Input
Amino acid sequence: MQRFIDLAECGRETIVELLRLASRLEAVPQPRALEGKVLGLLFLNPSLRTLASFQAGMARLGGSAFVISPGQGSWKLELRPNVVMDGDAAEHIREAIPVLASYSDVLGVRVFAEGKNLEHDLAEPFFSAVRDTCPVPLVNMESAIAHPCQALADWKTLDDLDVPQGGKFVLSFANHPKPLPLAVPASAVQMAAMRGMQVTVLRPDGYALPDPIMNAAHEAAKASGGSVRETDDRREALEGAHVVYAKSWGSPRCYGDPEAERAMRADFGTTWRVGRDWFDGADASCRFMHCLPVRRGVVVEDEVLDGERSVVVRQARNRMFAQMAVLHRLLRGE
Ligand code: CP
Output
């Protein structure tokens, strides 16, 4: 494995091996496995979990890490190709990536969607530019439409909790004051489909996930024996559900137009905030998942987030073990 950019690119067999390795590293520490190795971390967007879990994981394997957050103690970076750099940005990623790579054995990069033009973001131009200029193993710490580290940790969480391989996984749109990127919903649907689950995307009118994301999920489900479908009927979607994975995302219908989207969301505070009654028809063991950060009382009611169905902290903890497995595999090849 040369890079960890997208679950589909890795393939199911590699993912299953990574999950086994993650569980082994959780059970039996290997504090010298990556001794002398350096992980470079470039964050073009904020983070809590990714920032902390990569550094903690690298330290637990005996390696070290450095963090660069452009504009906060280091130069602002330009991402666009072929521009005259007479604005705020003093450095281009075309130089910054190979320079950071020259100090590192593996590089992790976070660069979100621009959120202005859907076609542009679906094409992943910024992360592609990073990939094309990076001479060392590369980890996607969340790009425009992929968050594979979150998806790997979520898969581990489902396995840890014995959620059935063919169980019913509901990715539900949830209320939020702002249009959010598509990376987490895209990777969650792909992960559950690859795992062989019966996946339902529950969303309001205007929030259907873009075709490339759904087509990739359908393909994954075909290979794994799972299924993928969409609906706006909450009661029917949640009947017998084993997992409710809540996440907000921006409407593809008015992508890049926050004013238009605000109007679409006017009553979502009551209709798309996850509450206890959502689980009335679900399986008795149904879990509540969210990648975090989450806005209490907006996305989900406190009693769900604090209740026994919620596994959000376990998901976050699993980020560390999942990423340790990725780093181990990239740097030791085992
Ligand atoms: N879930 C996740 O990636 O969290 P952060 O944005 O805090 O890293």
